[in-house]
Hints:
Elements: E1 2-11, E2 14-20, E3 25-29, H1 36-48, E4 67-75, E5 79-87, E6 90-95, E7 98-100, E8 112-115, H2 121-124, H3 127-141, H4 143-168, H5 175-214, E9 219-224, H6 232-241, H7 243-249, E10 260-265, E11 268-269, H8 270-273, H9 276-298, E12 303-307, H10 315-323, E13 331-335, H11 343-347, E14 349-354, E15 359-361
Parallel strand pairs: 3-13, 3-14, 8-12, 12-13
Antiparallel strand pairs: 1-2, 1-4, 4-5, 5-6, 6-7, 9-10, 10-11, 14-15
Helix pairs in contact: 3-4, 4-5, 4-7, 5-9
Amino acid sequence: MKIQHLKILNFRNYEKLxxxxxxxxxxxxxxxxxxxxxxxxxxxxxxxxxxxxxxVDKVFIMNNKDVCRIEGVVSDEFQTKYxxxxxxxxxxxxxxxxKIDKLSDYISRISIVLFHPDDLRFIKDSPSIxxxxxxxxxxxxxxxxxxxxxxxxxxxxxxxxxxxxxxxxAYSSSDYLDVLTSKIIDCGEKIYQSRKEYIDLINxxxxxxxxxxxxxxxxxxxxxxxxxxxDKKKIIKKYKDNLQRDIILGKTxxxxxxxxxxxxxxxxxxxxxxxxxxxxxxxIAYKLTEIDIFKQIKKDYPIFILDxxxxxxxxxxxxxxxxxIDDNIQTFITTTEIDKINHEILEKSKIYKVLDGEVRED
Length: 362
């Protein structure tokens, strides 16, 4: 999968921009604060309709403008035109100029894997950060997963609302609660199985990539879930055992919405016992493994974005990482230090210099 052409209007600090990209390496360099990350962010937003920065949509729009638009021509088996339009009333997406009413029917069409310095939060921060990342990754692989996830979240919201009703009125019927709980269990099992299969695929390869980056192979991901070794009778009992607590708290305290991941190195949690360098290498190994999984399942490589990869890595590890990227993968690298990229890669790259909202092909 490759993005051939990108057209931007009023996105962040870019008023108007049109670029054609190499199907292989695209190096985007310039000083800090000139818009390198904004450029690759626009590709990410085109693919997934949201930013990796966690920004609300309206901040995409350039100051003193009413609307922003991102268009891209993407090729896999066919050439397809994608468009996302954002204004104060929300966002619209189109495929080949046909409006797509549900974002869930748009997401997963363009496959993208991103490394960004903030990805260290994936290890360091709360379980919700890891669930969000995992959900995004699996949704790109399986559109039905996103639909199951949306349904699950809707059911949990309805159950939480009814738990509060029961807390106020103890005579409320339990029948509706039982129906919601049953649907949550069935939907949760589908989500659990999808996540388990995905993490099993990650664990098949992540140790090998970690070894090739830093010479050590003992890295695994532990998947932690209330639905572990799923048994419906035990799960039903657990919801019943938790019912009074759920009523008092007004929320569902058991289920896949509490799932978590742990990066384990030599059996120890990398969050607590790993250095920042080890954590960063683990994330990169995870991303490279993701690329293999996309190729395996979708029969095509995703677009790969490495944003500010070189900020904290030594030259040896940088070379190790770049040597692991298949030439068939369309890769975008942003950097302030173009001299850190080896000449072999530079020679087969398109190189773009960014100067505060302007991009020049070198």
